[in-house]
Structures are given as C-alpha cells and as structure tokens.
Write a structure and sequence with these properties.
globular; two-stranded antiparallel sheet; 18 helices; 511 residues
C-alpha cells in the first residue's frame, strides 16, 4: 500500500463462502464453558450500508464486502448474562482452490475501527491474500461494535504535561474530567473493555464462522491483541504477523513512559532538523540543525506563556509535543515537509499572535481539541485503562515527569504524563496475562521506530519463543509490512502467509 493509504488506515487489516457454522475442535475446553450458543450462532451476512448517509457502508457494498454482527458475552465470566455485538466485515477469498481460512486484521489504536479499510487490506495483500477471507473486526465498544462515547470535548493520547507545574495541573484536571464523563455515561460496560476480552471476541468470531484456525495481522497495539490470542487460544491460531510490536509485559498506558522511545524521538527530531536546515530556502526555520531545534523550543515555550492562536484553535504547551511527534512516525519526505509546515505555522502564531493552519494541521487539532473524535478516543482509553493497573498518586506522576524532563524537555513530559486511567472508575477486572508461549508467529519491526521501538519488538519476539523476527534497518516506520514498500520485508511476510512456514532464521532487511 502507498503512503496515502497509510494516512487512511492510520495516530502511528471468515470462513469459506457458504459454510455453515460447525463444531470446532476444543470447543468443550474450560475456557469455552457456557459459550456454545455463541459458537454455534448463525452468521447473517448482509449489506454493509446503514442508511442513506452511510458512505463507508456504501463503499464496502460497492467493493463486494459483506457485513455481520456477532453476538458475544459482555462478561465472559458470566456468559449467560448480557450480550453485546461486535461488527465484522468480510472480503471473500478469490483463490478458493488454495483456501487458507479467515485472516483477521487489526490496526491498533487500540480500538481503531477497521471495517471501512477491508477493501484496502484486500488490495494490499494482493495475490497472497487471495486465499484468505479478509476479515475486519471493530473491537468491542469501537466503530460499529456496541460503541461507547463519553461525550469528550477534547482528545487525549498523546498529550504532554507541558513545561511546568501549571501545565501539568491542567492535565490532571482534564484527565479527571474525561474519566468522570465516562463514569457517568458508560459505567455499566467500562469494566469489560480490555484487550483480553477483545481476544476472546476474536475466538467467538472464529467459532461462529466455523473455522478451526484464525490467522491474524496486527499492527502496533494490535500486536498485543495478537499476543493475547496466541497466549489464550494458541492451538486455534493460524498464520500470525505482529508488525511494529509492543512489549507484551507493558500493556495499556504503562508503555508510554518508555525512556528509550523518548530518546529515539529526540534523535529523530534532530535528523529532521538537519534536513530542514539544508532546505532553509523553503522552510525558513534555520540554517543549522541547532537553529531549527531552537525554533521548535521557542514555539514550545511561547505556547506555555500564552496559547498560540492557530485558526479557531488555541494550542498550548501540552499539545505542541504531540503535534511534532505525530509527524516523526516515519521518515518519508511527505511527513518531513508537513512537520516543517506545522512548525512554520506555530512559529508565525508565536511571533504575530495568530496563523492559519494547513489542512492537515487543522484536522489534527480538531481531533485533539474538540469532540469530533470523542467516540474513538473514549473506546481507546477504555481499553488501555482496562489492560493494566496504573498509579493513582498524582504526585508520583509529577516526580516522574520532572525526572524525564531533565534529559528530554520536549518528549519526556509527553511519555510520563498522567492519563484518565489514574481516575478511571474501575480498576482492571483481571491481571494482565503474561505472554509466554511457543506458538509460531512472525514479528516485524523497523529498527528506527520512535513509538514501538526496536527493543519492544525484540521483547515480543522473546516472549513468543516460537516466533521469527524481521528487522528493517534504515527506517523508522510505524507499520512496515505493506506500508513501507520494502520488497525484502513484503516478500518474506508474503512467503509465510502463503505457506505457513516461518523463515528458518531471523532476518535483517535494509532500506
């Protein structure tokens, strides 16, 4: 897939046609107790469009994609209780002579809706994907899957603690307000938002479709969903690819404070600054990398003194680091130019009292500073808060922020900031399951990643002792397979998906 498709798919992808649901091997195991009615449910495939204004559904119908709602228990410890639905979409296999079953994909987030991207996944997988039914599933409480919306008037992740205690206190107040809004509007379902329950939903989907095995392609936080499935249902896993993987021992928001990620972000910013300095005739940010970095720092501190007026938005020091980081997730020329344009706008606002944003910056600010993406932010935060417990001691966060700020003033306060999870109405219902198994899988990672850094992918590789790993040197893309355009990576992953045979050794590709 090209980079324009990546923008659509990205914040940083059933069974054989006509088969009725059939008994599945292992259906009488303890983990399946009480789930028989869900496993045997009839899957009612239908058109995807829901009403005349549903453009995404209409586009899916035009692409020949079918949609269905799958019933799953709200609470898997009481499967006889309340049920909810998760929405799935299917692009049927075209190479039925070599049919390999369903391949479910996930784009991370967590809780990024994926149904509308099924045609792009089909196109990107090409000949290799022809033997699979390509399945999109919106994880519970996101997209079309019993969605929640806490009525947030601002986004959350990523958000920084800013330059000083006053900025941090604003983030404390905001995070508490967001958590309180979710408690008031969705208290009945928040305890059941987690990656563990999403993995259980995946297995109900597999069973309802009558498939003995479920293949999986997961990016970013989706790698943790895949790892949870492997740990809980390894015998039912087909061909599994985990791209831009996170450390499975650090689920939820606990992974955000990774010091290595913060230092890689600073290094990536330095690389971009050197590039921008070489083209000062275009960007006018400075003729040396030091001058360009000084411009970024000046913008950051000006936003702390007085929020910058950018179009209709007020941009303070809790937002500036996120704007910069969002355009460092790959090393493309497109992202480098957009980052330069963003810094130009912010610098103009700092110098003159106001500036008009680029269209891309306007879209980003709308997602961060308005309620436009309230539902998606609500679902993503609910899953992260349900995945792992966090400290509720406000002062502990402040101490960590101050320590991180010393070596990395721009990105340290971003990674260590307090989140709504510190005020979430319920702690996680279950302890995170430690991922340690030998189920085959393929881990893919860019060596220069600034979010899911290489060490995180290596941690996933170690936790999955039956896995192999592909490392792409000379790139920092968040999302490598199908997105980067690396023939070496794509050929190796396609070979695995095509045959089910992992590479005999770990591989290193060079961009």
């Amino acid at each position: 897939m090209n980079r324009s498709r990546r923008a659509l798919l990205g914040a940083v992808l059933a069974t054989a046609a006509g088969l009725a649901a059939a008994p599945v091997a292992g259906a009488d195991t303890t983990q399946d107790a009480g789930l028989g009615p869900y496993h045997r449910q009839h899957v009612d495939w239908r058109a995807c469009q829901r009403g005349p204004d549903d453009g995404d559904g209409r586009a899916l119908d035009e692409a020949g994609v079918q949609c269905a709602d799958i019933r799953v228990p709200l609470d898997y410890s009481h499967p006889g209780g309340r049920a909810i639905t998760v929405a799935i979409a299917r692009s049927k296999a075209t190479d039925t002579a070599h049919y390999a079953g369903p391949l479910l994909f996930n784009l991370g987030g967590p809780a990024t809706p994926v149904l509308s991207t099924v045609p792009l996944a089909r196109q990107g997988l090409g000949v290799t994907g022809a033997k699979f039914d390509v399945i999109g599933m919106d994880v519970r409480f996101s997209g079309r899957s019993s969605p929640i919306d806490c009525g947030w008037q601002a986004g959350w992740l990523p958000r920084s603690a800013g330059t000083d205690r006053e900025s941090f206190d604003r983030m404390v107040a905001l995070s508490k307000d967001l958590a309180d809004r979710c408690a008031r509007t969705n208290a009945d379902v928040l305890p059941y938002a987690s990656t563990a329950d999403a993995a259980r939903d995946m297995d109900v989907v597999r069973a309802a479709l009558g498939a003995p095995k479920l293949s999986f392609l997961g990016y970013s936080q989706g790698s943790y969903l895949g790892a949870q499935y492997l740990q809980r249902f390894g015998g039912r896993a087909g061909r599994v690819v985990l791209d831009s993987a996170i450390d499975p021992d650090r689920p939820g928001v606990t992974i955000l404070s990774d010091r290595t990620a913060a230092s890689r972000r600073a290094a990536a910013l330095g690389e971009w600054a050197a590039l921008a300095a070489q083209h000062d005739d275009l960007f006018h940010l400075g003729t040396t990398a030091e001058q360009v970095l000084a411009t970024v720092d000046r913008v950051y501190r000006a936003a702390a003194d007085t929020p910058l007026r950018v179009g209709p938005y007020l941009v303070d020091d809790t937002v500036v680091p996120a704007l910069v980081l969002g355009l460092l997730v790959d090393d493309s020329e497109e992202s480098a130019v957009e980052l330069a344009a963003t810094v130009q706008v912010l610098a103009q606002a700092a110098d003159t009292g106001g500036a008009e944003p680029t269209q891309a910056l306007s879209d980003t600010l709308a997602g961060q500073l308005t309620g436009r993406e309230s539902a998606q932010h609500s679902a993503a935060t609910a899953v992260q808060c349900g995945d792992a417990p966090v400290s509720r001691d406000v002062e502990a966060y402040w101490r960590d922020i101050e320590a991180a700020r010393t070596g990395n003033p721009l990105f340290g306060p971003l990674g260590n900031n307090i989140t709504p999870c510190a005020f979430w109405p319920n702690p996680p219902r279950e302890r995170p399951v430690r991922v340690r198994n030998g189920t085959p899988a393929l881990v893919v990672q860019a060596a220069g990643e600034v979010n899911a850094v290489l060490e995180m992918g290596q941690a996933m590789h170690r936790a999955l002792s039956g896995s192999r790993m592909i490392t792409l040197e000379g790139a920092r893309d968040h999302g490598v397979y199908l997105f980067r355009g690396s023939d070496c990576v794509d050929t190796a992953v396609n070979a695995y998906l095509d045959t089910g045979n992992l590479p005999t050794t770990d591989l290193t590709c060079t961009q």
